[in-house]
Amino acid sequence: LAFTLGALDLPGQTPAMVEIIRRDPDSRWVRAALLSSMASGAGGLFAELSGDATVAHSAGGQEFLHQLLTQIGAQNRPAEVAQAVEYLAACTELENALASATALGDGLKRAGSNLSAADTTHKLKHLYESADAALAGNQTAEPLRIQAVRFFGLTSFSEAGPRLLAVLDGEQTQQLQMEVINALGRFPEPG
To answer: Quick check: 148 and 131 in contact, CB under 8 A?
Structure first.
């Protein structure tokens, strides 16, 4: 049903898809079926699921929301991207907000755009500031710092280069430094 439902354009399609993912958000097969069949409607599905506690509080549900954000970015439909930016602006848990922004940014990059272009009203300014503080804080948990590196890797070298280069010193873990090198390698501009 999940494979077929996404391919059709029917009234009531989104609520049916919401119900399918709510029943088992941790099933990678259900998530894959919904994503692979969805030609459009990622924004509507995301809008319905992003506030759903069952989905948001499960690892599989969060992964599915991130996959939807990547798809929204790749499709680059202005209304859906704006809706996703609103969601990111309202996120209160920093690690999830950075992971979600990275997912959207990755999709936007595939579409030839980026988070800065999508956030014309600077609603994500606090997210940039929080990511900057997390990256600069040597006492910050490493998974959060890595998420900040990945987030900045989807901006531009002029925005993130100096921040990322500052992390390349002998005092950081090898994993963090490798993440920084990967992020720097994504920039088309010369460093």
So the answer is: yes
Rounded Cα–Cα distance for residues 190 and 184 (Å): 10
Confidence of residue 3 (pLDDT cuts 50, 70, 90): very low
Nearest to 66 by CA among 125, 107, 38: 107
Element housing 64 (H / E)? helix 59-75
Instruction: List the one residue out of 94, 11, 99, 85 whose CA is nearest residue 46.
Output: 85
> Which whole-number Å values give the CA distances from 191 to 75, 81, 136, 157, in the listed order?
29, 29, 20, 7
d(CA 54, CA 69): 18
Enumerate residues 6+ apart whose C-beta is below 8 A from 135: 145, 148, 149, 152, 163, 164, 167
- Integer Cα distance of 108 and 97 in angstroms: 16
Tokens 């609603």 sit on residue = 123
Instruction: State residue 133's pLDDT score.
Output: 92
pTM for this one? Answer: 0.84
Whole-angstrom Cα distance, residue 101 to residue 107? 10
